Here is the input.
Amino acid sequence: MSRRQHTIREGTSEKYWYTLAGYIAVCGITLIAALITGIEAGGEAAGSVLGGGISIVSILGIVVYPALFKDSAYVRGMGYWRPKWWKYIGAGLGIPLLVYLLISTAGLFGAPIFAFIVHAITASGTATVYLYQRHKRIGVP
Here is the structure.
């Protein structure tokens, strides 16, 4: 019987980085599948299929932030590394918000759509950069 490891914060464990890695894998698979399907469909259908893939990636990107926070709390609590989780989450959510504000302030059409697309990019980028930094400092993943 294995004991669940607890750190300073209740509910953190060594397994939260799997969520980030899984999200990155789902992003790649979803976008490649949408791209291939969109190329085969051609025309207007291609945009719809690719838009659907981006939507899935952007919506699933919401799981990145709690997982990143919990993993950084685990890593910090174990004394391995002191990641500044707020920088990662701030960039992942702040950049789409900034895009939305800039586009809507300029009076251009489609600010929510562009912010949604940018969130898909920043959520996957945030997860990738965090896991890279984690690997560089700890060795796992």
About this structure: Residues 16-138 form one domain.
